[in-house]
Design brief:
119 residues; mainly beta; four-stranded antiparallel β-sheet; 11 strands
Length: 119
């Protein structure tokens, strides 16, 4: 099993910054890709950013140049530095991890953390 523990959400004014963290607590699993997704009411969950175990990254076009994803493999922790925040970034942000156990991949999600950007 893998447990994802998120932290760092909150309320910020437009133009401000927040940093999200997500620690993966696992027993016997290796963590491959980790990422952040977000969801607003009535909309599908969307990818924000993803980072592989080799630190290859991919970003949604809407956050390129403003958000930076990074990870500490020793701690199985992924970070999302969010700068120049806009009201449209307001959403619940979910951490995701792809874990491998006995050559099979499993998909895990955190409970989500609210990010609210006021105008």
């Amino acid at each position: 099993q893998v447990q994802l523990v998120e932290s760092g959400g909150g309320l910020v004014q437009a133009g401000g910054s927040l940093r999200l963290s997500c620690a993966a607590r696992s027993s016997g699993f290796s963590i491959n890709a980790m990422g952040w997704y977000r969801q607003t009411p009535g909309k599908q969950r969307e990818l924000v950013a993803i980072i592989t175990s080799g630190s290859t990254t991919n970003y949604a076009d809407s956050v390129k140049g403003r958000f930076t994803i990074s990870r500490d493999n020793a701690k199985n922790t992924v970070y999302l530095q969010m700068n120049s925040l806009k009201p449209e970034d307001t959403a619940v942000y979910y951490c995701n991890a792809i874990a491998v156990f006995l050559a099979r991949e499993y998909d895990y999600w955190g409970k989500g953390t609210q990010v609210t950007v006021s105008s």
